[in-house]
C-alpha cells in the first residue's frame, strides 16, 4: 500500500510537471509564430523518446525551428521526470546542493575566497571553524580582516537563478549594497538569509568577459555528463550568459542574453532572450563578428575536474566565471532543473552525441526515477 501511494503521488507530480511545460512551450510557439502542427522528422523523434514516456511533440516543434530536425532534442518534461532523477539520485541532492560544501568538495582554488559562512544557524570561518558573530561590530571586524573591498552574499540552500544574491562594497566605516541603499548588518543577514548563507570575495572577471558587460559577472553555463559506460566526463553543450548593460546579474530572466558556444570556444552569432527571441547585436556588440573564449581547453579541463568530484551525480549544469588572471572559478552547479532550453535555442540538442547512451541507460533503469520534484 505504501509503495502504491508513493507511486500515485509521483505520478501526480509528473503529470503536473507535464501540464506546466506543455502550457509554457505552447506559449513560446505562439509568441514566436511557430506552427504547432506536425513537422518534418517529428515521427522519428516521437519514436525515439517514447521509450522513456509520452513524447510531447511541442518540444520538437519549437526547438527544431532553431536547431534543425535534430532527433536528439530532449523534451523538458522527460528530462525533469526521467533523465535527471535517474542520473542524479534524489537522496544525495541536499548535500551537493549546499554551496557551503563546495570548498570541501573542490578546494579553495576552484572557488572565490570564502570570508565566512552560516550553516544551519551557526557561523563558521573559511576553514569551517565555529565563530561568533553576534553584532555589527564582530561582523565588521571579520570583514576587515578579509581586506576585501567588495563582497557577495548568497543563500546556500534552496537557491536558483541568482535569487537573493547581493553585492556589497566598503563605504568608509560601513558596507552598502551596490546599486541600493541597504546597509549591511547582522540583523539584515539574519532576516534576509536565515540559517544558511555564504559571504565571499567579489572576484574581478577577466577582461574578455567584462567586454560583454562590465556591470555583471558574466558566466559560462556548461552541461557536464559523466558517462555511465566509461565514467569519463564530457561537455555536450555550452553557452555564455551576458547581463544587460547596467545589470548586476547575467540571468536571462533578468533581461540578460545568452549565446551558444561551439566546441572550439567560438561563439555563435545570435543572442537570445528567455523567450527564444534572437538578435545579432547586444550591449552594442555585433555578434556577427567572430568572438572566441580564450583558453577554452583550460575551462573544459576545469569543468571535468568538478565533475569528477561529484561522484553520486552524472549530469551537472556548471556556472563558471573567469577571473582577472584567466583562471576559471566555479560559481555554482545544479543537479536538477537544467534549463535544457538554453542550449536547444542556440547550439543543438542539450545532450548531443551522448543522447543515445543516456536513453539506453534510462530505459533499463526507469524504476530509479522515483524522486518527487517541485516546480
Give a quick rundown of the structure:
This protein has 375 residues and is an alpha+beta fold. The chain has twelve helices and 15 strands.
- Helical run tally: 12
Coarse morphology: globular
Helical residue percent band: 25-40%
Strand content: 15-25%
Main sheet: strands, sense, barrel: 6 strands, antiparallel
What class, by secondary structure content?
alpha+beta
Instruction: Give unreliable regions as ranges.
Output: none
Q: Output the strand order for the largest sheet.
A: 2-1-6-3-4-5
Radius of gyration: 21 Å
Please tally the β strands and state the result: 15
- In N-to-C order, the SSE pattern is HHHHHHEEHEEEHEHEEEEEEEHEEHH
**Alpha-carbon distance between the termini?**
27 Å
Please tell me the overall pLDDT: 92
Secondary structure layout plus pairing:
Elements: H1 2-31, H2 42-49, H3 58-67, H4 76-87, H5 93-97, H6 102-106, E1 114-119, E2 122-125, H7 136-146, E3 150-155, E4 166-171, E5 174-177, H8 186-193, E6 197-201, H9 207-210, E7 219-226, E8 233-242, E9 257-260, E10 271-272, E11 278-279, E12 281-282, E13 285-286, H10 296-308, E14 315-322, E15 328-334, H11 341-344, H12 355-363
Antiparallel strand pairs: 1-2, 1-6, 3-4, 3-6, 4-5, 7-8, 7-14, 8-9, 10-11, 12-13, 14-15
Helix pairs in contact: 1-3, 1-4
Amino acid at each position: 500500500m505504501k509503495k502504491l501511494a508513493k507511486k500515485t503521488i509521483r505520478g501526480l507530480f509528473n503529470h503536473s510537471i507535464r501540464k506546466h511545460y506543455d502550457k509554457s512551450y505552447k506559449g513560446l510557439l505562439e509568441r514566436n509564430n511557430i506552427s504547432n502542427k506536425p513537422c518534418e522528422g517529428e515521427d522519428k523523434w516521437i519514436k525515439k523518446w517514447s521509450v522513456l514516456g509520452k513524447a510531447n511533440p511541442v518540444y520538437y516543434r519549437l526547438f527544431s525551428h532553431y536547431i534543425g530536425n535534430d532527433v536528439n532534442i530532449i523534451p523538458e518534461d522527460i528530462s525533469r521526470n526521467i533523465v535527471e532523477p535517474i542520473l542524479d539520485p534524489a537522496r544525495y541532492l541536499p548535500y551537493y546542493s549546499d554551496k557551503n560544501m563546495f570548498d570541501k568538495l573542490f578546494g579553495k582554488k576552484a572557488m572565490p575566497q570564502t570570508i565566512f559562512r552560516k550553516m544551519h544557524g551557526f557561523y563558521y570561518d573559511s576553514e569551517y571553524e565555529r565563530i561568533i558573530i553576534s553584532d555589527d561590530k564582530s561582523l565588521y571586524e571579520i570583514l576587515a580582516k578579509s581586506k576585501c573591498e567588495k563582497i557577495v552574499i548568497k543563500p546556500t540552500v534552496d537557491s536558483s537563478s541568482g535569487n537573493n544574491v547581493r553585492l556589497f562594497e566598503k563605504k568608509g566605516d560601513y558596507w552598502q549594497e551596490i546599486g541600493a541603499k541597504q546597509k549591511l548588518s547582522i540583523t539584515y543577514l539574519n532576516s534576509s538569509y536565515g540559517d544558511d548563507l555564504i559571504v565571499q570575495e567579489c572576484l574581478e572577471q577577466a577582461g574578455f568577459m567584462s567586454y560583454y558587460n562590465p556591470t555583471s559577472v558574466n558566466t559560462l553555463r556548461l552541461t557536464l555528463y559523466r558517462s555511465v559506460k566509461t565514467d569519463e566526463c564530457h561537455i555536450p553543450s555550452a553557452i555564455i550568459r551576458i547581463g544587460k548593460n547596467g545589470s548586476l546579474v547575467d540571468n536571462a530572466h533578468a533581461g540578460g542574453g545568452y549565446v551558444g558556444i561551439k566546441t572550439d570556444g567560438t561563439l555563435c552569432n545570435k543572442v537570445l532572450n528567455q523567450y527564444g527571441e534572437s538578435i545579432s547585436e547586444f550591449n552594442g556588440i555585433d555578434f556577427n563578428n567572430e568572438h572566441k573564449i580564450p583558453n577554452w581547453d583550460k575551462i573544459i579541463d576545469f569543468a571535468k575536474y568538478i565533475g569528477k568530484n561529484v561522484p553520486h551525480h552524472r549530469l551537472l549544469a556548471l556556472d563558471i566565471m573567469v577571473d582577472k588572471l584567466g583562471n576559471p572559478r566555479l560559481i555554482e552547479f545544479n543537479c536538477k532543473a537544467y534549463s535544457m532550453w538554453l542550449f536547444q535555442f542556440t547550439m543543438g540538442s542539450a545532450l548531443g552525441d551522448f543522447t543515445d547512451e543516456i536513453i539506453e541507460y534510462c530505459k533499463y533503469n526507469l524504476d530509479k526515477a522515483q524522486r518527487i520534484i517541485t516546480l
